[in-house]
Design the sequence.
């Protein structure tokens, strides 16, 4: 039995190695620039605009779009996983550098330099945070100010998760205006629709968001000037900027300086969200109209790679299976190895279980963010994060099963003269098999769900259309990821269920 | 007296503050059936489990087959001793036959030897061969107990330890089991040490009896002598309670 098991492992080994080589090979391209973007529409647009401009100059561009939030983009930039992304000055001073006071752009740029980052000249527009309400709600509020929310306790106040966490978000705002609502969190991409549908009454908005026009929403006056300005700036590493080979790239980026004002940005955003034009087309029309790119340089068919990926179900599905399959394989292997090592040592068992439990309590996005400095972005850190999550159910079930075997059976196998290894192989493992299997099943289903978040660090999979769809308020796109992911989880549950009953039926019938 | 197969010399065992066995001096003779009798908590099961090394004495010497119970390679030592216990303790995930022949296969018996011995034991225990492929849960309590005895006897041990093997079955089944054990005693040259709290059982199956109370041996003699001449008032009460 043990020999057969070993053979199976040997057969799998080349497969795993090949998989790793393929993925490590993907990132080893020639001189190129990797542009990242946050996971909302405007940032996609800006990134795509720059990508088209650089490509028209003959550069090859890797698009790492839709990375989850400020922290992940910032860490990815610092760790050379991406070379550039568009950040906002207010975010840099408040959320990244944690500065208390509003500082000038010069001072901000200086402080960023000490972090090894180079802030390029702003594009023009100010996409500040704002508080949005429906028009009829605004009419109830005196002076349409944020402060007037104070008397309206029955309003349902829901903010994006990032806004709830940031010092320049709800914490500071509520203190400044003396507001006390019980607030809850929502994914930013869903907030506008929820607001328009009357499910919620107040949410945070970006002042250039296209949805504001689409849903006829009103921004409340920030009469106490709480929100700092959020000028969009290209952010790169200082070392990258001072590399002579990148001088021509910098000149292309600088062409954008001061070219996009508030109205332009809002209108570009609105084309994506209201008129349903893909952000790639909007970006192309913009660079052509501005004359950044000569007509004919961009072929009409050459849509961004990302959109192709998003709509390519089978490719996403395969990537999703690779992510979860590898994570589960290593989770099972190491989970079992750890359990077998620890089960007869009570102290170590306890420590192992607490450690695995601790891992499970780290929020998925945070765990993914922690991975970036160590493993970068993309496939590998996602597999490692999923692997860490799969450990707890496998280790918990295995340890529990191995430590709760009927002590009589242990005495009997001792008394019969079995060695420790024979006892493990012939008694303990077979008796624990159903529970161990149930643990692997739980881990598989959890992995399939959590793997959708891997798209936030550019790992692809079925999360890709979900992330892009959320950013662009595109329900179709969201469902293209969500439905297959749900079906995959159900199918996995079903298959494991079948396999599990086959395993435990050995208890009823043995030849 | 025949040469002893087991010798306890000044053996003691305690769990925490509780003394389970106190300075035990005991010789168990070869090819006889010795029944250790006592109430629960008397230390009788501990005494039995020391013989195959499941429990280690805190102090004293314990010799089995003329040698000390080994520290290393205890598996080889244990394979010379059969062990059956209350409730049989069969492995629930393998067949009746697997339960019985497993250990013989592990020590490298040929499949022919294995099958011969298996079938012989099944016949001797009056178990139909068509039970071979069943799993333990499909068997009655009495059948399970017989399978447990077959398993204990598979490697033809010279010494058989029985830990109250008949106490979890109904009275009629118990009588049937007594018959097969009696047959066993006459067919196989085996020394038996049996733990029991039932004096009737001891009288029926045993040659000698050891009466234990609170970790101390009160009497160790031929059964007829124990009954005819109880050493202490406690033994006397025990004898009277069984008649």
Sequence:
């Amino acid at each position: 039995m043990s020999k057969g098991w070993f053979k199976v492992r040997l057969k799998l080994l080349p497969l795993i190695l090949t998989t790793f080589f393929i993925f490590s090979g993907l990132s080893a391209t020639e001189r190129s620039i990797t542009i990242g973007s946050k996971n909302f529409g405007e940032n996609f647009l800006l990134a795509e605009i720059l990508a088209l401009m650089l490509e028209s100059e003959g550069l090859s561009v890797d698009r790492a779009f839709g990375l989850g939030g400020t922290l992940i983009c910032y860490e990815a930039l610092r760790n050379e996983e991406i070379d550039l992304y568009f950040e906002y000055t207010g975010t840099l001073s408040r959320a990244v550098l944690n500065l208390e006071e509003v500082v000038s752009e010069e001072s901000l740029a200086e402080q960023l330099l000490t972090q090894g980052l180079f802030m390029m000249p702003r594009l023009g527009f100010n996409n500040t945070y704002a508080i949005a309400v429906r028009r009829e709600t605004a009419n109830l509020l005196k002076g349409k100010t944020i402060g007037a929310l104070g008397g309206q306790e029955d309003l349902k106040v829901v903010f994006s998760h990032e806004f709830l966490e940031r010092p320049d978000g709800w914490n500071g705002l509520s203190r400044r205006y003396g507001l006390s609502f019980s607030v809850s969190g929502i994914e930013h991409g869903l907030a506008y629709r929820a607001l328009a549908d009357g499910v919620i009454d107040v949410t945070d908005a970006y002042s250039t968001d296209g949805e504001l026009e689409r849903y006829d929403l009103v921004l409340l006056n920030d009469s106490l000037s709480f929100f700092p300005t959020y000028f969009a700036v290209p952010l790169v590493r200082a070392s990258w900027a001072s590399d002579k080979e990148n001088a021509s790239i910098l000149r292309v980026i600088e062409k954008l300086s001061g070219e996009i004002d508030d109205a332009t940005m809002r209108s570009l955003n609105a084309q994506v969200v209201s008129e349903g034009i893909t952000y790639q087309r909007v970006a192309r029309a913009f660079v052509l109209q501005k004359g950044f790119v000569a007509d004919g340089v961009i072929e009409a068919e050459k849509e961004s790679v990302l959109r192709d990926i998003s709509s390519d179900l089978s490719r996403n599905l395969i990537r999703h299976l690779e992510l979860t399959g590898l994570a589960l394989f290593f989770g099972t292997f190491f989970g079992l190895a750890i359990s077998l090592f620890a089960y007869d040592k009570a102290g170590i068992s306890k420590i192992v279980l607490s450690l695995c439990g601790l891992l499970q309590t780290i929020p998925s996005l945070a765990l993914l963010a922690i991975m970036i400095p160590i493993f970068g972005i993309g496939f590998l850190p996602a597999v490692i994060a999923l692997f860490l999550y799969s450990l707890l159910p496998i280790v918990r079930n295995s340890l529990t099963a191995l430590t709760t075997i009927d002590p009589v059976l242990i005495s009997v196998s001792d008394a019969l003269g079995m060695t420790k290894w024979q006892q493990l192989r012939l008694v303990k493992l077979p008796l624990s098999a159903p529970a161990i299997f149930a643990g692997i099943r739980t881990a598989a289903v959890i992995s399939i769900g959590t793997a959708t978040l891997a798209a936030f660090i550019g790992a692809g999979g079925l999360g890709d259309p979900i992330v892009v769809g959320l950013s662009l308020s595109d329900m179709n796109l969201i469902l293209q990821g969500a439905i297959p992911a749900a079906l995959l989880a159900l199918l996995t549950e079903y298959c494991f269920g079948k396999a599990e009953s086959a395993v435990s039926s050995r208890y009823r019938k043995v030849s | 007296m025949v040469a002893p197969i087991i010798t306890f010399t000044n053996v003691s065992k305690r769990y925490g503050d509780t003394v389970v066995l106190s300075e035990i001096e005991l010789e168990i003779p070869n090819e006889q059936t010795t029944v250790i009798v006592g109430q629960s908590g008397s230390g009788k099961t501990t005494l039995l489990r020391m013989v195959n090394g499941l429990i280690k004495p805190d102090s004293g010497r314990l010799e089995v087959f003329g040698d000390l119970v080994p520290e290393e390679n205890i598996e080889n030592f244990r394979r010379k001793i059969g062990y059956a216990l209350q409730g049989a303790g069969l492995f629930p995930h393998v067949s009746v036959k697997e339960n019985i022949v497993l250990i013989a296969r592990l020590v490298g018996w040929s499949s022919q030897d294995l099958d011969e011995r298996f079938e012989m034991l099944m016949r001797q225990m009056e178990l139909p061969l068509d039970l071979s492929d069943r799993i333990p849960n499909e068997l009655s309590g009495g059948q399970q107990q017989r399978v447990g005895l077959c398993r204990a006897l598979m490697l033809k041990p010279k010494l058989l330890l029985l830990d109250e093997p008949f106490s979890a079955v109904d009275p009629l089944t118990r009588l049937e089991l007594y018959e097969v054990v009696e047959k066993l005693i006459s067919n196989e040259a085996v020394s038996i040490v049996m733990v029991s709290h039932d004096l009737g059982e001891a009288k029926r199956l045993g040659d000698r009896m050891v009466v234990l109370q609170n970790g101390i041996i009160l009497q160790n003699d031929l059964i007829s002598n124990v009954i005819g001449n109880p050493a202490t008032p406690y033994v006397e009460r025990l004898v009277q309670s069984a008649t």
